[in-house]
Write a structure and sequence with these properties.
globular
Amino acid sequence: MNDSSWGTPQTGYWGPPDHGPGQGAAPAGPAYDAHYAQQTRPMPVVPDVPVHGGDQDVDRGAARLSGPPFRDETPRARPHPGEVPQNPEPMPDAPQPAPVPRKKSAGRDLGAAIGVGVGLGVVIVASLFVVKAVFVGVVAVAVVVGLWELTKRLEERKGIKAPLVPLAVGGAAMVVAGYARGAEGAWVAMALTTLAVLVWRMTAPPEGYLKDVTAGVFVAFYVPFLATFVAMMLTADDGPWRVLTFLLLTVVSDTGAYAVGWRFGTHKLAPRISPGKTREGLLGAIGFAMAAGALCMQFLIDDGSWWQGLLIGLAVAASATLGDLGESMIKRDLGIKDMGTLLPGHGGIMDRLDSLLPTAPVVWLLLVLFVGSG
């Protein structure tokens, strides 16, 4: 063995042995000390390694300070020749069982969702074709409930206290004004509601005034003002059919996005906002909405044409998707999944209005451009 591999000797470490030089050795002196030290450098002592399973293992384990050097806490005894080991360890390269594929889940109670959806559809269609004023009342009630849900979540999650009373009164008045006086009535009601929010909030301490009234104005525009376009659609001679077309296209767009995305969706559309939405789902929404739009414009709307329905369906798919993403952004900011629990399988009213609200002005405007406002 090469002695130099053990490192350079330190000064004073190497020296003559205690017993002195042996017979026939060179005389003592500096030259002898250096020569003797070079020839008798001790090798490091290698301790005996005890056999596993004996008493030495117990002593070694008791003296151990930092835990076992291996994965097993208790030393294992070597099996005798011919003996079958008990509880043999699995081989590292042994094939592992394949994971059981998980079925895709809709994430909600589909039975409850379908039942509630059908029930809402019956109420809406019945009120729409029986008495127009009753449908306007249904829209106003939905607006007030949506305002309550949104302002409640803002206060719970962000501490923002948007005044509900002026919002609810002004929101209901906005829908009625839109039906009775058209766009002018809706804008006037919106301005008065904004003023009422500013004044009402003055009765509370000034801390947080700016964020509260800002949220109040946003809520007034987001929920009741956009809903007034549904009421304005109703004023036309074929108003019920226009509203039905608007509702059908939005529902078909959402259904197409869900069905295609659930079955074929692999590419995320906006993973930071809504991880469940896919590009394939968006294509499904566009295809379904355009087909439904062509049928509705051809058979339900006076003086309508199928190509106009294609364009309206495309616009509905875009606006409904953006509306859904917009509310998803709000819910992510609030740290909630649903705005409420009023509708089993759906969440709250706002969870059903998310795609309807921004789609209403789009459909109203396109119908006015294509077939007029009468």
